[in-house]
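hey m, so remember when u said the tokens were messed up on ur end? i reran from scratch. heres the input so u can diff it against urs
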Amino acid sequence: MDERYIAAIDLGTSKIAVTIAQINNQDVQMLYYKETPSEGIRNSFVFNPAKVARPLKEAILEAEAELKIKVRQAVVNLPRYEVRQETACARLQRTDSESAITLEEINYLKSNAIESYPLNDPAKEVMYGVVAQSFSTDDYIHTLESDIEGMVSDSLDGNFKVFIGRKRHSDNVDRVMNLVEVAVAKKYFPPEVTAKAVLTAEEMENGVALIELGAGSTSVTVYHKSILRYYSSIPFGGRTITNDIKLECGISESLAENIKLAYGVCMPEKLQTLRDKIIQINDDESGSCKQLSVKYLSEIITSRLNEIISACLYMIQESRFADTLRNGVVITGGGAGIPNLSSLVKDMSGYNVRMGYPVHRFSYLGCSEINQKSAVASVGMVLSAKENNWINCLSEAPLKPEPLKKSVLETTEIENPAREEDIVESTISSEEPEKEYVSEETAVIEEKPVTEEKALDSEEIQEDKESREEEKDKKKEKIKTIPVKKENIFTRITWKIAKKVGGAVNDAINAGYDSMEDE
């Protein structure tokens, strides 16, 4: 299809963003972007689907009314927190060792990474994504994916980073979308889509650390040689800073957020004219007033940012790529708008630092907010969905049902449902209405009664019956069964778990910040 529309929904801790883009071949034009305060989301994951659905439904209706369209499906982001990564290996034993390795074989090995990897608890865990790190043949090791195609070998080994999250968090996203009656076209793992929206090809090739400072969590994504090498996150972000201001000044959270946005700045030693400014906070209800100096406000913000950035630098060291980041650090996210933040990170790390805005790979019409750092996740989802030609938010798509317990109903999930004419055999549950299936031998065609205002004479009636008989014979010839082809399994995958990484990082960070969370 040449022209289509993509709807992207960013479920964040502090805001829900709805984006509508028009895709015309390879051109992307952003038509709509608007943020709405969110409810029921904590540390980037949905814990109360009903609360999330209410503002999301209103946001979708507002977008539909403005663009005069009907959103039937959308792409949505997965949570960024409580995601662990593991390293695993897979082997493919080739049947034709003299032929060149094909892209089909590489994709087969990658696709089985999700299907064959042994989860610790499949009832509570789900695979968020798998990223190939390198491939090895009989003669060469640590070969990049771009170089492995066309090589000759008896076997093919792949090294992967496997990202695993909580199944409940992923299912809650489906529940939210079902409540707003919009189908999920695809769920994206945030590190990959955010990098696509912010980083350049040169940065990902030379080595870069992407720090995304959100409202409820802060994540670190490391790229080297254009491959995602490491990911981890902590449950602290912009809302944590707002909570510090609220508790220190004894004011409401909304007022603390407004003060942070208007006067918030880090590194008080670099303040010049603002350091002597005094913010007067009037309480209309009690008639009292409070005074807050900008310098003291800056000290509160800087204290918390020091802890967050220290945790990010610790994660960069844990990635073992700290010495290969030739392009330094890129900071993005809705919480990255605090002045002097890039200077603070540079002083603490020694890396070159830049602020990450959406790259200019699209045009926009009447929604300039799409160029802000808070919109990088939405932009990344649109750019990623553009590569899938079948995604169109205006087309029909079935809603994904909520997961049922096995004790209630045993179901079989079909990844690619067969078409009606491809069905040969089917098992019908006693709870479902009985369906009729037509085989090659028998065919029942219902005749519709013919009503005519004028009666036909005997010859016309006879000719009419003969013509209907001929039509039925033609339909019988067309009805036939299609044999189900058995999958040609020409390879065997053997998994070997190498080590676990993400869990140790999160345990170390959480143990170090227990006292901070109590404060």
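this time it looks ok to me. Confidence is low (pLDDT under 50) at residues 398-458, 475-506, 508-519. if urs says something different then somethings off w ur setup not the seq
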